[in-house]
Amino acid sequence: MASVKPSDTPETLYCTYHPNVETLLRCNRCGKPICTRCAIRTPVGYRCKECVRGQQAVFYSATTADYLVAAGVTLALTLPAGFVVPLLFGLLPLGYWGALIMFFVAPAVAGAMAEVVRRSVGRRRGRYLRYVVPGVGIAGSGVGFLILWLFVGLAGGALSFLVYIVMLAATLYARLR
Fold it and tell me: Cα(77)–Cα(90) distance, rounded to whole angstroms?
């Protein structure tokens, strides 16, 4: 019977991020030991979160000025839309049909807005642009609706406006990911 030499047994490794978890897996880029919870599967093998984050950072080139420009353009587009959309659908006797129509119209409007925002920042991508633009879009549309409500007193399009806000934010987020 052959004896087992100490060099034949694998070295016991512990995850860099979870020191109590034994592992045999290493990041294929930096070589850190990682457990299966920390491993991120890529086309070339498993990598740690830091290496994946560093690799993705290459794709994000937006500056602080780009975030300000995107917020300004979004506000300039959504403030009038938050006023006009409820006005149109509040004046028409559509009832629930206005909300249904808005379910299809709002993504088209938001898609056009997202393209204008993307072009205004020179097509640069930002890690947080997908959060800033929908947030400003909700705020701008809300202020537009508030102005309409204060001066005209029209609240008939509240349901369609709510559908508009949800679809606007969801579409802006999805288009700017």
Answer: 20
Calpha distance 148→142 (Å, rounded): 10
- Residue 92: pLDDT band by 50, 70, 90 thresholds? low
pTM: 0.70
Strand duo 40-42 + 22-23: pairing = unpaired
Rounded to whole angstroms, the Cα distance separating 161 from 105 reads: 11
What whole-number distance in Å separates Cα of residue 30 and Cα of residue 127?
Answer: 24
- Give the pair of three-digit tokens for residue 12: 């016991």
Per-domain residue ranges of the chain:
13-58, 60-175
> 3-state DSSP call for residue 36?
coil
Q: What is the pLDDT of residues 104-125, one digit of tens each?
A: 888 998 999 999 999 999 999 8
Return d(Cα 73, Cα 116) in angstroms, integer: 8
